[in-house]
Amino acid sequence: MADYIEGKRPVIEAFRARVPLKAVYLGDFVKRDALVNDIMRKAKREGVRIDMVPRSFLDDRSERGSHQGVLAETKPYPYVGIGEIIAAADEYAAAHDGRALVVMLDHITDTGNFGAVVRSAEAVGATGLVIPNKRSVRVEASTYKTSAGAIAAMPVAQVSNLVQSIERLKKAGFWVAAATEHTDEVIWKTNLKGKIALVMGNEQEGVSRLVLEHCDLFAKLPLEGTIASLNVAQAATACMYEWLRQNIAV
Question: Could you tell me the pLDDT band of residue 224, with boundaries at 50, 70 and 90?
């Protein structure tokens, strides 16, 4: 299904965020103001075609009814296979003293959290993310903004079965570590050296029971305050940096 960005300023922001665009649809009734002219200049510079269309075309594709006479259609995100992520991890490990990180997201649904996880994963040098293809976030136009553009450099595998992907990672030499509150092991005491697949659970229920049963390691972040928990993006960032700390410590 096509993903559309609607409205003059959101389309301009999409160009600035380097969202891959297939086409810009401009209503044949729209007056050429400064914003429209800016969109046309950016589209020409980036080689994005501009189609003049009737209002009905825009109305049929608008989800919020706020297109202002402008819609941009994004290109589909190029998901990769789990094998490609494993191969990239092996290549990374060979050049970085055997360390590699893959992040698995167990049915996370919040797009803002997803983008923040992607941004942190790219920052620590993770070689890929794994997400389910159902009941989960997907890479969409907003991900480029919430990840500060990091998604453009982060391979993502969309898989039908997380457990099967975990088993493939294990066979490739990964230890699978679940971030979960259902353990007494604090993450600082968990051995995260080498090739690690870090599993983060969804916002309401955490890592599912079935996925937990296939993990090797279990760790939690200590909480000294009165708040019950961190959100998944904050927790994932802390866990990823603990992996990095352990692997680059001298």
Answer: confident
Per-residue 3-state assignment (H helix, E strand, C coil) for 227-243? CCCCCHHHHHHHHHHHH
Picking from 47, 74, 101, the residue at the C-terminal end of a domain is 74
Please name the residue ranges forming H helices in the chain. 8-16, 34-46, 55-61, 82-95, 111-124, 141-146, 162-171, 209-212, 232-248
User: Cα(128)–Cα(101) distance, rounded to whole angstroms?
Assistant: 8
Q: Are 55 and 86 part of one and the same domain? A: no
Residues 141 and 210 in one domain: yes
State which H helix or E strand residue 49 sits in: strand 49-53
> Considering the entire predicted model, what is its pTM?
0.86
CA distance 182 to 180: 5
